[in-house]
Amino acid sequence: MRFVWAFLFSFYLTFSLSAEGKWITLHDGAQIYYEEYGLGEVVFLLHGHTLDRRMWNEQVGALNGKWRVIVPDFRGYGLSSDPVEGVQFTYADDLIEMMDSLRISKAHVVGLSMGAYVAGDMLAMYPSRLISCMMVSGEICNRPGPSQPKTREERKNQQVWNIQTLNRFHGLENYKRNRVEQLMKYTGPRGEEIREPLTEMIMAWRAWQAQHYTCRVYYGRDAWKRLQEVKPNVPSLIIYGEKENEGRSRMLDYLPDAEQRTFKDCGHMVNMEQRALFNETLLKWLWNHRERRVLLPIRYKNQKPWEPYRSMY
Prior knowledge:
By secondary structure, the protein is α/β, with parallel strands linked by helices. The protein has a domain of 218 residues: 3-Layer(aba) Sandwich (Rossmann fold), CATH 3.40.50. The chain is built from 10 helices and 8 strands.
């Protein structure tokens, strides 16, 4: 019997620690690439603008073997397909459709920057699908939502702005390098450590958004309105880096179970600059807000008879 449990545990570890890259086809034909690690309660890690799923590599390593981690590339980023001009979608709806396709009823959602915009949208628009929400270096954005589609004039102005911006930087490559410097501008003492991975991701970004007009990809002000009406009781954590402290978030006024923290000696890319502290915070947050326990039916060496079985996700 002991051999059987040892085999099953070995199989669990082998399966949970391996990455699996997959695509999901959404209702409008968009191809969303994601990587999946581990077993247990689901944690979505949502990347920032001009970046991709790789910005979460350190967190995937910390969470792997304890949670079922899903790291998608949004449309127009990483290995996912590009948007199509004139086709309305939101990143939050894309994630809900992903959850439905994967038969995931609820999940923990962690987002940084643009990913935090999306996490905030989900918190306001789909609170019943969230176990917890962590928003880093961002929250619900103050922009018009899908209820106010872009006018012809707005689309034209965006196209003109794109052309003028690329001309000002003398091409797409220089535009991307400027983006790297923007993210590096307010980093802390460990900032240079993240320059190389940031540059790699940003230079690989296809920059579709900088060359086309986009629809309302965030719920934005629609989400703000819903948040104030619903006041979702979802455990929520808002984090900013000290170098980019935005002050007290007004979302706290509409979230009964929420808190805000500031990480010292870092800027926008909190998870990459303060890896150890961020990972510790993330693990404690998820553990304290888990929805259920999955118990391994084995006892560990020196475990007392009255002690409960250990939990594993």
